[in-house]
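Subject: Protein record for review, amino acid sequence with backbone structure tokens
How to read it: Take the token row as a discrete description of the fold.
Enclosed: The protein record, placed directly beneath this head.
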Amino acid sequence: GQARLTATHVGAYVDCPMRFFLNNVAGLQEPEKVPDTLERSDMGTVLHNTLEKLYQPYVGQRLTEEAFNAMEADLPTQLQVTAREKVPALRDRVSGYNKVLLSVVERMGLDVIRHDRTLAPFRLVAVEQKLAGRLRLADGRYVHLQGIADRVDFCEASGAYRLLDYKTGAVKAPKKKLTLEEVFHPGNPYKEALQTLTYAWM
């Protein structure tokens, strides 16, 4: 079938065309390793998967105080289950450095749930929503784009949809409105803006 680009691919190409070519065209990747500890790079995956499982039962529903209370109560248990699925070495016991990292991830999860509580009421439309679009180039060819939004909400007060993509790393907020030239400029420090615009377009 036709190759498709994700928002991450677009950002990687803008940031460094050579690295994009080596990773995504030439197929050169770092060798996989089986970790015995929860690495920092895994924290985002564990948080994403945990929040997906917590919010999934409420798809199509109007989120209420009762729902947020239930998700907050279930967070610690679900986090442990997800971490053990991600890192086999944690299946017997979670301790030491892993326990510290998981407490950080739990704090992030609580922040998401408690922030959502302040935005209620809203309707949860979807989790892990697949997005796709086709961009026509000046020469008549098409670029096929795809992505996955972590969550889609419908805000009752504004009548607008909200696309969410969870981030566990530091996100630098721009001090002013960015132009498209700035968003697509190599070395742009606001890669989240590029991803959000791509998702919104799709």
